[in-house]
Amino acid sequence: MEKMRDSIDFKNTDIKTLFRKLLLPTVLGMIFSALFVITDGIFVGKGIGSDALAAVNIVAPLWLFSTGIGLMFGVGASVVASIHLSHGKVKVARINITQSIVISSLLLMCTSALFCSFAPQVVKLLGGSERLTPLAVEYMLWFVPFSLFTALLNSGMFFLRLDGSPNFAMMCNVVAAVLNIILDYLFIFPFGWGMFGAAFASAIGTTVGALMIVFYLMRRRCALRLHPIKMSRRSMQLMRRNIGYMCRLGSSAFLCEVAIACMMFVGNQVFIHYLKEDGVAAFSIACYFFPIIFMVYNAIAQSAQPIISYNYGLNESLRVRRAYLLALKTAIGCGVCFALVTIFCSREIVAMFIDRSYPAYEIAAKGLPLYATGFVFFAINIVSIGYFQSVERAKYATFITLLRGFILLTACFFGLPLLLGNPGIWLATPLAELLTTLLIGIIYCFSKKKRPKKVLSLQHGKDDQEFLQEI
After folding, report:
1. What residue stretch is flagged as signal peptide (predicted)?
2. Which of 58, 73, 169, 348 is the most buried (most CB within 10 A)?
3. CA 178 to CA 181: how far, in whole Å?
4. Nearest Cα to 68, choosing from 376, 372, 294, 339?
5. For residues 89 and 75, what is the distance between their CA atoms, to the nearest angstrom?
6. Mean pLDDT throughout 30-36?
7. In sequence order, which residues have a C-beta less than 8 Å from that of residue 72 and are 6 or more positions away?
8. What DSSP string runs through 422-454?
9. Which residues in 151-202 belong to E strands, given as ranges?
């Protein structure tokens, strides 16, 4: 087990060295997660057809919902746990992550049962047409029941990195992605299982990756591991308080995923209105591509998060600022690269998903370069939201996420096509991201002038001691 852990000193190591040590395995893990998504799209598009690709896009918000739950509890628990670790409260940190895993799993078990019980109605609510509904329902019924493993795979990444094991966290993503790629090919092509095969392959890959995390957190030689909790009334009250605070800290991470789901939902409505099912199929390619970009930016934000939170707990404001600016520069550089590749290679990217004979091909090839103009602003926004989460400024993070992901995005999706026609649909997301970046600049300058508040571990020190007495 010791081989799984790396020597990481969040307090004394140079920020650049520390960030680099966390960034490489985190980005590699996210790249494999991106391969998980993109190969699923390629195999579905090539092996089943453009309608199948559109159907997966219809139910994708449900996958994003479970991912968002995982990220919300992962961010919230890891920020709280890292602050406690910086003050030597290891047992409290263990309890924090245990609470987050138990509650998120129970929540997703309930929602998955609900979604599957009313699958046709859910697909209709998400914008599925008569032509796409049967395919969407088939995919949904074989993937949604495994949602709790999707959440655990996402939240577990935070806990493993905080425990000093970014390389093992990367391996969990690698194993999940490789399994998905192999099984996707086998189930769709040789076996001919269609939508069921695509969904089941993803479910198996995710489950195996999540079980690797559970195995890690159950080992007693881990510093940050699962811890039994008493079921007394006082323990339940303190758990409710802790879960509430974690959810507030991580709510913007959840909302980021829900914002992508909102983009897909509203975009599907607008595309089907202007360009029918072929427009939805074209948009689905962008929707497969967008989470991949998000994963890389999220990897950068997640690499900075334990550094920022740990040093924030020690009131090391200079190290906090250096970590944030380093993450921001890295994300902007990646955003520029992604935008250039997408603009100049749009036809090749689209051809990976569907044949050139489909009408959706030309729609997507013309739209992706417009869509890519927002990638740099998206980079700034994701890293900045992560920064606000890490320093317990949950209100700023939540406000920014709600504005960019729902209000501005919806307004741009419905307003720009009226002004610019079909190109306006593709430019809606970039404009929403640009406006959000301008707002973040204002908020960051304003927040620097305010006196920093006390960190969580100092606010709740008395309650934490009571909690320790309970267990």
Report:
1. none
2. 73
3. 5
4. 294
5. 18
6. 73
7. 104, 246, 247, 250, 251, 253, 254
8. HHHHHHHHHHHHHHHHHHHHHHHHHHHHSPPPP
9. none
One-letter amino acid at 158 equals F
Q: Please give the model's pTM, rounded to 2 decimal places.
A: 0.72
Q: Are 281 and 27 in contact (CB under 8 A)?
A: no
Average of per-residue pLDDT across 377-399: 87
Whether residue 455 has pLDDT greater than 60: no
* Pair of tokens at residue 453: 């508040």
Is the CB of residue 157 less than 8 Å from the CB of residue 74? yes
What confidence score (pLDDT) does residue 75 get? 85
- Please, which residues have CB within 8 angstroms of residue 84's CB and are 6 or more apart in sequence? 90, 92, 93, 96, 313, 457, 464
Give Cα separations from 193 to 188, 199, 250, 454 (angstroms): 5, 10, 38, 56
Cα gap 200→208, rounded to integer Å: 12
Taking residue 448's Cβ as centre, other Cβ atoms within 10 Å add up to: 10
CB atoms within 10 A of CB 117: 9
Is a pLDDT exceeding 80 seen at residue 343?
Answer: yes
Kindly report the number of other CB atoms within 10 A of residue 292's CB atom.
Answer: 18
Instruction: Please give the single-letter amino acid code of residue 349.
Output: I
pLDDT in tens, 199-253: 999 999 999 999 999 999 988 777 888 888 777 788 788 888 889 888 888 887 7
Type of residue found at 66: S
Residue type, 316: E
Whether the Cβ atoms of residue 60 and residue 264 lie closer than 8 Å to each other: yes
Cα(first)–Cα(last) distance of the chain, in Å?
Answer: 26
Would you state the structure tokens that stand for residue 272, as one six-digit string? 């089907």
In the block, tokens 């040093």 appear at: 311
Q: For the segment 263-322, what is each residue's pLDDT rounded down to a tens digit?
A: 778 888 888 888 777 787 888 888 777 767 878 898 898 888 888 988 888 888 899 899
Domain ranges of the chain: 13-448
What is the rounded distance in angstroms from the CA atom of residue 293 to the CA atom of residue 138?
28
Query: CB neighbours of 100 closer than 8 A, spacing ≥ 6?
Result: 73, 74, 76, 77, 155, 243, 246
With vertex at residue 321, the alpha carbon angle to CA 317 and CA 323, rounded to the nearest 5 degrees, is 115
Residues 378 and 194: their CA atoms lie apart, in Å, by: 34
Query: pLDDT averaged over the chain?
Result: 84
428/377 Cα distance (integer angstroms): 13
pLDDT at 447: 67
Q: How far is CA 335 from CA 21, 56, 381, 427, in A?
A: 21, 26, 11, 16
pLDDT-derived band at 63 (thresholds 50, 70, 90) equals: confident
List % helix, strand, coil for the chain (3-state, nearest 5).
Answer: 85, 0, 15
